[in-house]
Amino acid sequence: MKDNQRLESVNKMILKLEGNEEVKEILSNLMLHIENMTDEIQELKEKLQDTLEYAEFLEQDMDNIKEEIFGEEIVPSQEDDEEFIYVEVKCSKCGENIYVEDDLMKEHLHCPNCDNKLF
Ligand SMILES: [Zn+2]
What we know:
The chain is mainly α. It has helices at about 1-15, 20-70, 80; strands at about 85-90, 95-100. Helix 1 runs antiparallel to helix 2 (about 20-70).
């Protein structure tokens, strides 16, 4: 581990320092804190990695559940919304089958074959 090696060499430099023992102690204490922080960051990194992997599994599960509930197509296509609904109507006079748009059912229509009034 590169970080540990770097910390180790700094520790050695501190121990080799000549002079004020108080300064050496302060530096050594600071180094201990840095070592602890380095360990904690490493631990957090590992936990974050695990959490991200877990989140990915959850997302896959969610997709599977969505697929089971809503079918293969999760996003409804716009074409379905715009599609007209046709209703089959049989002319009472000539028996011709006429397909009319659902919306037009409210209007008065005449048979294109015999001009009989359908509605
Ligand atoms: Zn007709």
